[in-house]
Amino acid sequence: MLSLTAVTKTFAGFPVIKSLTLHIAAGRTTVLIGPSGCGKSTILRLIVGLIKADAGNITINTELLTPASIQNRRQRIGYVIQDGGLFPHLNARENVCLMARYLRWSPERIGERLVVLARLFKLPVSLLDRHHYELSGGQRQRVALMRAMMLDPELLLLDEPLGALDPMIRFDLQQEMQDIYTRLNKTVLMVTHDMGEAGFFGNHIVLLQDGAVVQQGSMADLLQRPASTYVEQFIRAQRQPWRDIDERMQ
C-alpha cells in the first residue's frame, strides 16, 4: 500500500534517515518504535509532504508522491500529532470540518459525516461547539482523530497520538482506536516510544536506530528472536522499571 524506497533525509548535513526502505501493508497497523531522535516522526513528515526527502521514492498504491501531488496526497492521508494540533481560533466542529469545507462539501454531507465520526469516537455532538481550551485532553485528542478521519482517508499517520494523555484516558482511547481502525480496515502507520502500546496496536513492528531499521516483524519476533544486542537492550530498558517495582514489592 505504502512504500518507501531508499529514502534519505539530512538536516544541516546530519543524516536523520539513512537510505530507508519500508513497506506498509494495506489494512494493517504498522508501528514505528525507537528512542528519541531515531527518525520516527521525520518519516511521517516525509510521507505527508511537510518536508522533502533528499533521495529515494515514496509511493501509495504504486503512485509516486511528488511535490506537485501534495494537495491530493493530503486529502488521502489523515495525520494526528501528539497534542492534537487543533487550531485555537476554531471550535471543535470547525477544526473537524476544515478540509471538507475547503473541498466545498455540501452542508448536508458535512453534517452526516460529523455525526458518524462523533458516534465512532464517542464524543457528544454538543461538545463540538467548544474551543480546544474548553475540552479535556481526551476530548481534544478525539477531535483531532475525527479531523484526521473526516475525508475517510486511505492512510492514517499517528505521531504519538496518546502520549500526552493520562493512563486511564489513554487506555480507553487505545481500545476505541483499535476497534475503529480494525472495523473500518484502515491502513495505519503509528509512532510510539512505548513497547506496550506498540504491541497493543501493531500487526507489524519496526524498530529504528539512527534513521535505519534494525529489526521488523511481529512483537513476538522482537521479544523471542532479537536481531542484535541493541534490540535486546531496548526491550530490556522498557521492561526494567516494572521488574524493579515487582522486586520492591516482594
What do you see in this structure?
This protein is α/β, with parallel strands linked by helices and 250 residues long. The protein has one domain: P-loop containing nucleotide triphosphate hydrolases (Rossmann fold, 3-Layer(aba) Sandwich). It is built from nine helices and ten strands. A six-stranded mixed β-sheet has the order 6-7-8-3-9-10, with helices on both faces. It has a four-stranded antiparallel β-sheet with strand order 2-1-4-5, covered by helices on one side. A hairpin with a 2-residue loop joins strand 1 (2-11) and strand 2. Helix 3 (92-102) packs parallel to helix 5. The longest helix is centred in the C-terminal third of the chain and has 21 residues, at 229-249. The radius of gyration is 19 Å and the shape is globular.
Spell out the key features of this protein.
250 residues, alpha/beta, Rossmann fold, six-stranded mixed β-sheet, four-stranded antiparallel β-sheet, 9 helices, 10 strands
What's the arrangement of secondary structure elements?
Blueprint: E1 2-11, E2 14-24, E3 29-33, H1 40-48, E4 55-60, E5 63-64, H2 70-76, E6 77-80, H3 92-102, H4 107-120, H5 137-149, E7 155-159, H6 167-183, E8 187-192, H7 195-201, E9 204-209, E10 212-217, H8 219-224, H9 229-249
Parallel strand pairs: 3-8, 3-9, 6-7, 7-8
Antiparallel strand pairs: 1-2, 1-4, 4-5, 9-10
Helix pairs in contact: 3-5
What is the mean pLDDT?
91
Beta fraction of the residues? 15-25%
CATH architecture: 3-Layer(aba) Sandwich
Topology-level CATH name: Rossmann fold
Put simply, the count of helices is 9
Query: What's the CATH class label?
Result: Alpha Beta
Helicity range = 40-55%
How many individual domains? 1
The outline comes out as globular
Largest sheet: 6 strands, mixed
Euclidean distance between termini CA atoms: 49 Å
**Structure classification:** alpha/beta
